[in-house]
Amino acid sequence: MTDIPGIVxxxxxxxxxxxxxKTVLASDKCRLxxxxxxxxxxxxxxxxxxxxxxQATGITVTSDAVEAFAKAQAVIDFTAPAAxxxxxxxxxxxxxxxxxxxxxxxxxxxxxINAAARHAVIVRAGNMSLxxxxxxxxxxxxxxxxxxxxxxxxxEAHHNQKVDAPSGTALMLxxxxxxxxxxxxxxxxxxxxxxxxxxxxxxxxxxxxxRGGDIVGEHDVLFAAAGERIVLRHLATDRAIxxxxxxxxxxxxxxxxxxxYDMMDVLGI
Length: 269
Prior knowledge:
- The structure is a single chain.
- The chain folds into two domains: 6-124 and 239-267, Rossmann fold; 130-236, Dihydrodipicolinate Reductase, domain 2.
- By secondary structure, the chain is α/β, with parallel strands linked by helices.
- The protein is elongated.
- The longest helix is centred in the middle third of the chain and has 16 residues, at 130-145.
- Helices cover 36% and strands 23% of the residues.
């Protein structure tokens, strides 16, 4: 038996799932103990590494989350809201660190995840990259320094298969801007403009979403006033940055007390 933490990857056949598997297999700080997929997925029953173009590892993709989580110290989860909520309960029962990169979570989903965090460590973030989390902190500081004469717009771009908008990262940035101004994002959010919307309301935080091609992730925070603009930007060109951040979170959480954390906690910023 090894003391190196065992990791389960959910959504193994997805873009992020495959990247996470490669990242874990390449690491000497952890080991892959299971890869999870839906029962009807063609990957179930197949060797993990063989499915991503490598050599056979002897680890077979499974649909049995209970069995998989029972032998893990951490679960890394970039799936869908309903699946993530179910996984949160199972990970808590297994006392495994649950790293959540899933976006599009509802208020009810977040309540369920918060309840699970009473029993285990949960690290949840709309984006796991160091650069994005630095951008979040900068956005809060700039928003706090500027008054409502500066309109704030969060502009995000992703690949054409992304199913939610605004992105989880865009919402993180919007929350940071709102926090900097001392307001609730729910009360000032302005998204989905179409048709005769009228003039922009002073103090609102706007969102614009672009979907196309294979864009990994691009986020701008625009502060625009009469005669000047400030733009904070982060461009992601490789999903590996998210996988590395998620793995860092899974390892960081190993000695922490039950509770819900984010990447600011992991990075200490």
